[in-house]
Write a structure and sequence with these properties.
It is a single chain. This protein is globular. The chain has three helices and ten strands. It has one domain: tt1808, chain A. The strands form three sheets. The chain has a six-stranded mixed beta sheet, with helices on both faces. By secondary structure, it is α+β, with helices and mostly antiparallel strands. A hairpin with a 2-residue loop joins strand 1 and strand 2.
């Protein structure tokens, strides 16, 4: 018996950005295939909102010429013609122009790790390391007070493993941001 190979047409970034699925779902493009994204849980949304507020206030207070964007599209350099990933938050220090479909030159990308999508989230995190401008990636857990950070070295290399944060301060050197890790979870009901 001969097995038939599944033939699929890979969607390009241009096609994906113009695509209107009409089903009310959000998608990201993963290796040419649209991947539906489940709605965020309330805790996920609270963490996303809390972190967005704290970082935006920090950028404004320190008069940083950087912008935080919620759920931006980013294009990894890896298979760039067929990938548009969507982190929970992104920070760029490049101008954001009207009509841009993706975030230019992100320096910091943030993912909130939910139990139902861990494999997809970590797949995205490793794809983000191929974006030349990205200096740090923060992965914030949603079921316990914990975070993981990946940082690019001064030589441009990424660590093979994340730095684990369970207490103390969370520091994001790319934007000179520091806050107690527990403060990120205020109002979420998540306890360590």
């Amino acid at each position: 018996m001969v097995a038939l190979a599944k033939v699929s047409v890979r969607m390009s970034v241009r096609d994906f950005l113009a695509w209107e699925p009409g089903d009310g779902l959000r998608y990201e493009l993963v290796d040419g295939e649209p991947r539906a994204m489940a709605p965020a849980s309330p805790v996920h949304g609270l963490l996303q909102g809390r972190l967005a507020t704290l970082i935006t206030e920090h950028l404004d207070r320190n008069k940083r010429a950087c912008s935080l964007v919620v759920a931006p599209g980013v294009i990894p350099q890896l298979l760039s013609a067929h990938n548009v990933r969507e982190p929970d938050l992104g920070v760029t220090c490049s101008p954001v122009r009207l009509g841009q479909a993706t975030l230019p030159d992100p320096v910091l990308l943030i993912e909130i790790l939910s139990p139902s999508n861990q494999a997809d989230t970590w797949s995205n995190v490793w794809a983000y390391t191929s974006i030349p401008s990205v200096q740090e990636i923060l992965v914030l857990h949603s079921e316990r007070v914990a975070a993981e950070v990946l940082r690019r070295s001064a030589q441009g290399a990424w660590a093979e493993q994340t730095e684990q944060l369970l207490q103390g301060d969370s520091t994001l050197a790319s934007i000179d941001f520091r806050t107690p890790l527990a403060d990120l979870y205020t109002g979420t009901g998540v306890a360590d």
